[in-house]
Amino acid sequence: MTITITAFERSPDRGNGLARDMRVRWALEEAGQPYDVRLVSFKTMKEPAHLALHPFGQIPTYEEGDLALFESGAIVLHIAERHGGLLPNDANARARAIMWMFAALNTVEPPVFERALANILERDEPWYEQRLRVLEKDIRKRLDGLSHHLGDADWLDGAFSAGDLLMVTVLRRLQSSDMLEEYPNISAYVARGEARSAYKRAFDAQLAVFTAASTG
Asked: Residues 95, 157: one domain?
């Protein structure tokens, strides 16, 4: 059964690999699984057919046979559990990898994403500078902990896992700032993720969509 995911027809990230379908694309590439992509517009995302797949009208979604999923973390976990390469075989190591998946999405991503939104939506507001300071203070607390744990290791817990995949996609949102430069080991960690051949294939596939939409 062919896997089908949804992605933005015209991604607001301008092909930079920040939209959340990138996580799913990367996971499928790491797992060596072919997939189709159904592109959706912002209008389509609010229509009944898409809302039946994703009740909050967002992307990505995942369809395989009679299984339909939403939420990028849940989709990546499903792929990782079904196919090799993203979760360790050892039960304890597997549990820790899943722990890092939750840490990426529940602990690190919220202030990082809020900062990105504030830069877009609140830049002209009188409270912008104060809000940015609060968010960046929260982000640095998380980066401090992450940097201390990572040390000089290549990955979060031994071999590359779905925890690293999600963490790298979250941290990439900070590349437009100078925050990652304050943590050389985290900056190098992100670069290792981006250097993986599966990441490059996923990135190129998402960029191709933006390029086609821009020139079409």
From this structure: yes
